[in-house]
Amino acid sequence: MVLPYGRQSIDEGDVAAVVEALRSDWLTTGPEVDRFEAAIAARAGVEHAISVTSGTAALHVAYAAADLQPGDEVVTTPLTFVATAAGAALHGAKIVFADVDPVTGNLDPQAAEAAVTDRTRVVAGVDYAGVPVDAPALRDLASRKEILFLEDAAHSIGSTLDGVPVGALADITTYSFFPTKNMTTAEGGAVVTADATLAARARSFKNHGLVRDRALQRHPDEGPWHQEVHAFGLNYRLPDVLATLGTNQLARLDAFVARRAAVKALYDEAFAGIDELELPTAPAGAAPAWHLYPLRVPAERRRAIFESLREQGIGVQVNYIPAYWHPVFEDLGYQRGMCPVAEDYYRREISLPMFPDLTDADVERVVAAVRHAVATVR
């Protein structure tokens, strides 16, 4: 049996919550969405949470909330899933990639600052593997340059930095609730912020841009049914059925985070002292919810080690091809070599299985397979 690199953890409480929602009067845009958003906002330590249909939708919505316009620039990391950049590009923005910290894989604040121009509107960091970005440095950069600091926290709900939860570190933060993430709504995501203006823009964009408040309408006397669209949006509404799953999952998040930390500790202990391996670490003050275990191996042997692990039934993955290597960016003129630290990280990275339902025996199986691959594959 293949051991996956990530998977959801669903219990009977989750099943019961979904069944109850299915039997209710509301399948979507109902009370479970409100309850879920309130719980997410509380967990993030901010006032506003806007649930959406995916982590990608969350990014698209967050960039809309930032009022991103064609020709604006967004500085971000290439060591991420392409959605971090695509969400901004779909608004017409130019993506400017800056290199990463060689230890964490997170956006390097100094590289980000060097990439900022007078057209930059947003600096977007990604919490790679669950390790929070250097939020104080990026917030300071954003403040000095009068731009928005966005944190792509697809990997990191449940993480903290100096005791502050991810969600309260940036101007606006996005979560993903895909099944492999730290908690799930099957598909889903959220945008969280302390800023009421950003929240209002986000909520409008995720619901077609509809204006129902008579005080804001251009033609408020049309009738009680009347609603208007002042700016285009999309339908990114999360259904009640999925929201109630999310609320139940959120109640288990601390247990998920604790088990992920325990799995990481087992891996760290097993691989300590193997010179060919570089283990993931977090900076002082960071308490990650480890979404990935990004092991780094010699670049010239990475593919052979990866294939050996797959042959041994270990469902490893690589996270990520540098975003500008995708043909959609190549066709826009982006070239390999732009961010050498990120490219080196990619060439050596293998993500080992990491999810709460991994047993100690599963971890031992992974460890044995890695040791075998490193020792025998050349």
3D structure, described in words:
This protein has 378 residues and is of the alpha/beta class. It has two domains: 3-250, Aspartate Aminotransferase, domain 2; 253-376, Aspartate Aminotransferase, domain 1, CATH 3.90.1150. Helix content is 37%, strand content 15%. It is built from 13 helices and 16 strands. It has helices spanning 12-22, 31-44, 55-65, 83-89, 109-115, 135-145, 196-205, 240-250, 253-271, 302-311, 327-330, 340-348, 360-376, and strands spanning 3-4, 48-52, 73-76, 94-97, 120-126, 148-152, 160-161, 164-165, 172-176, 189-193, 210-211, 228-229, 286-287, 293-296, 314-315, 349-352. The strands form five sheets. The chain has a seven-stranded mixed β-sheet, sandwiched between helices. A three-stranded antiparallel β-sheet has the order 8-7-13, with no helix packed on it. It has a two-stranded parallel ribbon with strand order 1-15. Helix 4 links the parallel strand 3 and strand 4. Helix 1 (12-22) runs antiparallel to helix 8 (240-250) and helix 3 runs parallel beside helix 4. The radius of gyration is 21 Å and the shape is globular.
